[in-house]
Design a protein that fits this description.
Blueprint: H1 3-10, H2 21-26, E1 46-47, H3 59-72, E2 81-87, E3 96-100, E4 105-109, H4 112-126, E5 137-143, E6 147-150, H5 176-184, E7 189-193, H6 211-226, E8 231-236, H7 251-256, E9 261-264, E10 270-272, H8 277-293, E11 299-305, H9 312-317, H10 335-351, E12 358-363, H11 374-384, E13 390-394, E14 400-403, E15 406-409, H12 422-430, E16 434-437, H13 455-465, E17 472-474, H14 485-493, E18 495-496, H15 502-514, H16 518-532, H17 539-543, H18 590-611, H19 622-657, H20 662-685, E19 691-692, E20 697-698, H21 702-722, H22 728-733, E21 740-743, E22 753-755, E23 758-765, E24 768-773, E25 780-785, E26 793-797, E27 803-806, E28 815-819, E29 825-830, E30 845-851, E31 854-855, E32 877-881
Parallel strand pairs: 1-2, 2-4, 6-7, 6-17, 7-8, 8-11, 11-12, 12-13, 13-16, 16-17, 21-32
Antiparallel strand pairs: 3-4, 3-5, 5-18, 9-10, 14-15, 19-20, 22-23, 23-24, 24-29, 25-26, 25-30, 26-27, 28-29, 30-31, 30-32
Helix pairs in contact: 3-4, 8-10, 10-11, 11-12, 13-14, 13-15, 15-16, 16-18, 18-19, 19-20, 20-21
Length: 883
């Protein structure tokens, strides 16, 4: 491919917020076909109740029922089957009994929200396949999960790089039809981001600019959502620390009120002291102001540590990987005492104005492994957590997924892994109100589609949740919240009793929308679930994974050593490189990932073979056609991801073993061209496809897909005919005749090389690599790439050999360092840990070395990426292993 072709591809319009056509669709009620023909005893109509002033159908539920009746051809008339409302004070909030007989429908509840849930279930019964036989059934449902909290799919994230705030613009993110859909899915909470520095403070007069407009819009949103039985929850990550990051309090604030500055990490970065009277007043007064000004809020979800929350307690929690907390006040308390105190303070301030409001303290962390030192701290926090506050952890993090004979750690969110992790289960056993952070509609595995239709996975998750005292679920992050089948599944599963079996649940879920085709949907969903559970359980394959956007990546026959883009943030100039190992980290080898993707591909396409023949039958039903297109889109994503892995596996094998795989690779490219053309057609039909709501942009879209087809055609026409093993760029990539450094067999034989004004040497000690550096009093930073195209590892040690940071965290400790009597530093690298990933054991490694201000090669960092850092492979030199 010509470089100009790639530049043209980059220059395609990739604006972060293209026209979101699906927003217009969400402003209207779902376009679907309802069964036609008789509806049992309801064919003659339904006589709606007059109601009582203090016990009547909520207005929005009544309007919804009338809309469904009209769509089914059921008149509202006095001669119809009577709908009778009965108040039963013995029933709990949202609990209801719906008794349908041939002569009447009796709906019993204690209050309006119970009536709402009963009406929505009655609507489902009216949407069953047409028939003359009268329906007779009795349903008794009780909310097991009292709070089911989601988020607007398309509202801005209120954080960099766009930093757009839904409370300060003029757009309505909660149209009536959208709220109606969410309410039908049994969602009764939505979280909305706010920062305490957006509110006035007597300590910081410049805080709270524009607060009147912000809170006025929040109040309007609260009032609008309340009409649908939905509470708004304020999403916080407080307290913020003091620093120069965009979400921190500025250092000048800490200078103004020094008592709020706790643990000092540097001259400009301090954690927030929650033990000082000033710090406590700042938190209390901010929350009291918010709840005194905005009435009817449902509560607070607060990230207690990490993300942008930075109390001294976080430093106490992680003292084993950093210096101890040096805050003179917080360091005198236990970690549990600090966190519990913050939770109590925030909850008391909130309940001063909203006594029934809920507080959920969320301990978010993407990475956790069994038996980590902080695990015992978490247990003590759980044991001391107040009984009237929710304690939330990610439901799956810290779990172990058995794949190909090995246990793989489950990190961050997961829809593919059932859970719960042992960590979540232990927390649930030790506190009164455990809460579950879930991903319902989709998760980090594939967030460029709105929904992953695997309701059987949710059934298994919720069966576990029902065995605990959990009463609150947060169903999404910025993604994972689009209305549809997965939200409906979670809503049904939040009520007891659960269906007796997975098959019974899936059939119940499919029947209102698919009627007599429900058995086909059950079989397809089960195939999709089997596919999705084979997802490579690997944090990098989530954050940088191929499913999100490989369908838009170029393919490179000639190596370019360029990075994979993150999925979670939108970067206009990043189009996808060939460093394929970055999405695998050192958790899965390339052959292992191919094996798992083949499993995913097999089962997903089995499900498609069941579903896609239904397309002709539903040509007039836009909603069902969208379901089919979505399933086909995900199948293309899985197949494309597999094709990319296979393409680069064959390319690497071809270059290192000098044996041609060009015919197989050509077939893969042709398959990708056909898939890209089909994906372009699907995206033109459905504007949801390709949109990633955390990145706030499209990871693929029709114009880009058309551009990719041209690139792939150019690849076949220009690069394939030109390829030769003897081309200089191919030989250089393999390390042949390339300048570099030698790793000797012994220390005695090792060559001494200069690094600025100091020196180093590299040698083997059995299966270990040893880097010996004359570093004097300088810190050392070693970059090492043990496997081509896989992440660069970083080892940082102070001059005495004390570790500062290891990367990646998913492996056992593989570095060590010690001072020698000769006053040098020897860094030892356990190469055997990486043997499975080094498919070509004789291939050279690559490295770079930094000693204080002296460099083997000065760094030219890439833009930073979570987990992967900013290492630039162009800075690395070859390290040849002496035979």
């Amino acid at each position: 491919m010509h470089n100009q072709s790639l530049q043209d591809y980059i220059s395609l319009n990739r604006a972060g917020r293209r026209t979101l056509k699906f927003v217009a669709e969400l402003r209207e009620h779902e376009k679907r076909l309802y069964p036609s023909g008789p509806c049992g005893q309801f064919s003659a109509g339904i006589a709606l109740p007059e109601g009582q002033p203090d016990f009547d159908l909520p207005q929005t539920a009544r309007e919804s029922l009338l809309r469904i009746m009209a769509a089914r051809g059921i008149p509202a008339c006095a001669q119809g089957i009577p709908l009778l409302l009965h108040r039963d004070p013995a029933l709990a909030r949202e609990e209801f009994i719906l008794d349908i007989s041939p002569t009447a429908v009796r709906l019993s509840a204690a209050e309006g929200e119970g009536l709402r849930r009963g009406i929505y279930l009655l609507e489902e019964q009216l949407c069953r396949p047409a028939g003359t036989e009268p329906l007779q059934a009795c349903f008794h449902r009780q909310a097991k999960l009292h709070w089911r909290i989601s988020r607007c799919f398309f509202s801005p994230t209120c954080r960099p790089p766009h930093s757009r705030d839904e409370l300060t613009d003029e757009q309505d993110y909660y149209p009536e039809a959208y709220l109606d859909r969410l309410a039908h899915e049994n969602i009764n909470g939505l979280w909305i981001t706010l920062y305490l520095q957006d509110l006035p403070s007597r300590f910081f007069p410049e805080h709270g600019q524009g607060v009147a407009k912000r809170l006025a819009k929040l109040q309007a949103t609260v009032d609008k959502c309340a009409r649908y039985g939905i509470k708004c929850f304020v999403f916080l990550a407080e307290p913020k620390g003091f620093g120069n990051s965009s979400l921190s309090l500025p250092p000048a604030d800490g200078d103004r009120v020094p008592a709020m500055r706790g643990h000092r990490q540097s001259a400009t970065h301090s954690s927030f002291c929650t033990s000082s009277p000033e710090g406590r007043d700042y938190l209390r007064e901010g929350i009291e102001y918010l709840f005194s000004q905005v009435h009817g809020l449902g509560g607070i979800i607060n990230i207690m540590c990490l993300e942008s929350s930075d109390p001294c307690a976080t430093r106490m929690l992680y003292e084993h990987i950093g210096p101890p907390c040096n805050c003179p006040r917080c360091s005198q308390k236990s970690t549990a005492e600090l966190f519990v105190d913050v939770a109590r303070l925030m909850a008391a301030a909130m309940r001063k104005y909203e006594p029934e409001a809920q507080f959920a303290g969320w301990f978010y962390f993407a990475c956790f492994w069994k038996d980590e030192p902080e695990q015992q701290q978490f247990m003590r926090i759980a044991e001391q957590w107040p009984d009237d506050l929710h304690l939330m952890f990610n439901f799956e993090v810290g779990g172990l997924s058995s794949q190909l004979g090995q246990d793989r750690p489950v990190l961050d969110y997961s829809l593919s892994f059932i859970g719960p992790s042992e960590l979540w289960s232990e927390i649930a056993r030790r506190c009164a109100l455990p809460a579950a952070k879930l991903q319902v509609s989709c998760s980090h595995e594939d967030a460029s589609v709105p929904i992953i239709p695997v309701p059987d996975n949710l059934y298994r998750k919720y069966c576990a949740i029902h065995q605990t005292s959990c009463r609150l679920t947060m169903q999404c992050w910025y993604f994972g919240n689009y209305p549809g089948i997965m939200n409906r599944a979670a809503g049904r599963l939040s009520f007891a009793p659960l269906p007796a079996s997975e098959e019974e649940f899936l059939h119940e879920l499919a029947l209102p929308e698919w009627g007599t085709d429900a058995p086909a949907l059950v079989a397809a969903w089960q195939a999709f679930g089997e596919s999705y559970r084979a997802f490579p359980e690997n944090l990098n394959f989530k954050w940088f994974g191929l499913l999100h956007q490989s369908i838009a990546f170029p393919l490179y026959l000639f190596p370019v050593d360029q990075p994979l883009p993150p999925s979670y943030i939108f970067r206009e100039t990043s189009i996808g490189g060939d460093r394929i190992g970055e999405c695998l980290d050192y958790t899965h080898t390339l052959p292992e990932a191919i094996t798992l993707l083949q499993e995913m591909d097999k089962y997903w396409h089995h499900g498609l073979k069941i579903l896609l023949p239904l397309r002709e039958k539903y040509l007039g039903d836009q909603a069902r056609l969208a379901d089919l297109a979505l399933a086909e889109c995900i199948g293309l994503q899985i197949r494309s991801s597999l094709n990319l892995l296979r393409f680069y596996f064959l390319r690497e094998d071809m270059i290192h073993h000098r044996r041609s795989h060009l015919p197989e690779m050509r077939t893969l490219v042709l398959d990708e061209i056909a898939a890209t053309v089909r994906m372009q057609e699907l995206c033109q039909q459905d504007s949801r496809l390709g949109y990633h709501s955390e990145a706030e942009g499209y990871l693929f879209f029709p114009e880009q897909l058309a551009g990719r087809v041209k690139l792939l055609q150019e690849l076949l026409e220009q690069d394939f005919p030109r390829f030769s093993f003897d081309l200089p760029e191919i030989r250089a990539y393999a390390g042949e005749h390339s300048p570099g450094y030698l790793c000797s067999r012994t220390r005695q034989d090792a060559t001494t090389y200069p690094c600025g004004e100091t020196w180093f040497r590299v040698y083997r000690n059995q299966e270990q690599l040893c880097f010996e550096i004359a570093n004097g009093q300088d810190d050392v930073w070693l970059e090492l790439e043990p496997c081509r195209l896989f992440p660069v590892l970083n080892a940082r040690f102070d001059y005495q050999g004390r570790n500062q940071v290891f990367r990646p965290l998913t492996l056992p400790q593989y570095w060590s360092a010690e001072r020698t009597p000769e006053n040098t530093l020897v860094i030892t690298f356990k190469l055997q840990h990486f043997a499975p990933f080094r498919q070509y054991p004789d291939a050279p490694l690559r490295f770079n070395l930094h000693c204080g201000n002296q460099h083997l090669t000065p760094p030219h960092p890439w833009p930073g990426r979570l987990l992967l850092g900013s290492n630039n492979p162009a800075d690395l030199s070859f390290l040849h292993l002496q035979p």
